[in-house]
Write a structure and sequence with these properties.
elongated; 7 strands; Rossmann fold; about 250 residues; alpha/beta
């Protein structure tokens, strides 16, 4: 059943909420994000007001298979940017249960180093059955955070594997994270992820097989040929120790 249109009273309430968000009030930001996730007339009204204020943030997508350390890497990158005085928002998408529809939203636990920092805002989102690694309203959440004035927005995908290519449509820079120890290195590097990567990250590079993963990536890139003259760099990191964590620079 269609939802009724917004009356003037509700529009005035939403306008007050937008003003509070733009003034830097975190509770207002959280409420706007919830309304946008729920969809409907309120979400459309809010996005129409906020969209003209978006477009200044640099959006970094982080994708890869489960267990590669995406949350730990985002935690390290966010910490690096905060040390450089940049404000950071994180959208962490977690898979929803096919039985209950619920999600653990546990990525925030691995980003506890950022808790309490006034220059960081973390939002967990349930995928709610959407494929491609993102939730249906992830792009709208990015717009809200952009309008709120965050300079860097990290988007961590679900981590379901080779089909997570939607992030390339949302991010200015896409990091594809690989790790040693997942079996056949060539099999773990799928064509879709190979094509969307702006930067490859070989995380857990203190593992003895890290060099094999890097060689496999170079081999796959050589087979694919240059992409309009751009060859994605391959960076080794140990995110738990913040080793090899220079911020991504391409496109910004």
């Amino acid at each position: 059943m269609a939802r009724p249109p917004l009356d003037d009273t509700r529009k005035a309430e939403l306008a007050t909420l937008v003003d509070a968000l733009l003034a830097g009030q975190r509770r207002a930001l959280a409420r706007v994000l919830t309304a946008v996730e729920n969809g409907g007339a309120e979400a459309q009204w809010l996005l129409q007001r906020l969209y003209p204020r978006a477009g200044r943030a640099h959006i970094v997508g982080v994708t890869g298979a489960p267990g590669v350390g995406k949350s730990t890497l985002v935690n390290a990158l966010a910490g690096e940017y905060r040390e450089r005085g940049r404000t950071v928002a994180v959208v962490a998408v977690d898979p929803s249960s096919p039985f209950t529809g619920g999600a653990l939203l546990g990525d925030r636990v691995r980003m506890r180093d950022l808790a309490g920092d006034p220059g960081v805002f973390i939002r967990s989102m349930a995928s709610r059955g959407s494929l491609g690694g993102l939730a249906r309203t992830t792009g709208d959440a990015i717009t809200v955070l952009d309008a709120a004035g965050f300079e860097m927005i990290f988007v961590e995908t679900v981590g379901a594997g080779q089909v997570e290519v939607d992030i390339a449509q949302e991010a200015h820079t896409t990091l594809v994270v690989e790790v040693p120890g997942l079996g056949d290195e060539v099999q773990t590097i799928k064509a879709g992820l190979l094509e969307i990567a702006d930067i490859f990250v070989v995380n857990k590079a203190d593992h003895p097989n890290a060099e094999r993963v890097e060689l496999a990536l170079k081999m796959m890139l050589d087979m694919g040929g240059p992409r309009e003259g751009w060859r994605p760099p391959i960076v080794r990191t140990v995110a738990t120790r913040r080793e090899g964590i220079p911020p991504p620079r391409r496109g910004h």
